[in-house]
Design a protein that fits this description.
- 30% of the residues lie in helices and 17% in strands.
- The protein has one helix spanning 32-52, and strands spanning 7-10, 15-18, 26-29.
- It has a three-stranded antiparallel beta sheet, covered by helices on one side.
- The protein is globular, with a radius of gyration of 14 Å.
Amino acid sequence: MRTYTVIIEKTADGYCASVPTLPGCVAMADTKAEVETLVYEAIRFHIEGLIEEHLPVPEEHETFIETMVIA
């Protein structure tokens, strides 16, 4: 079992999810629940593609998420 950090952002059109450890692995949906389901599927699909191509599957690296206020 692997664990990956997923970043979910509210957008003007709904929600966007991305996986920093898996560049290009993203999902977009109208609701947070939908984007959570879609990004889970996207992660599985991304990893399956890497395995089929005999490429290394990245392990989660230490990720820091911070909010900064810029005045």
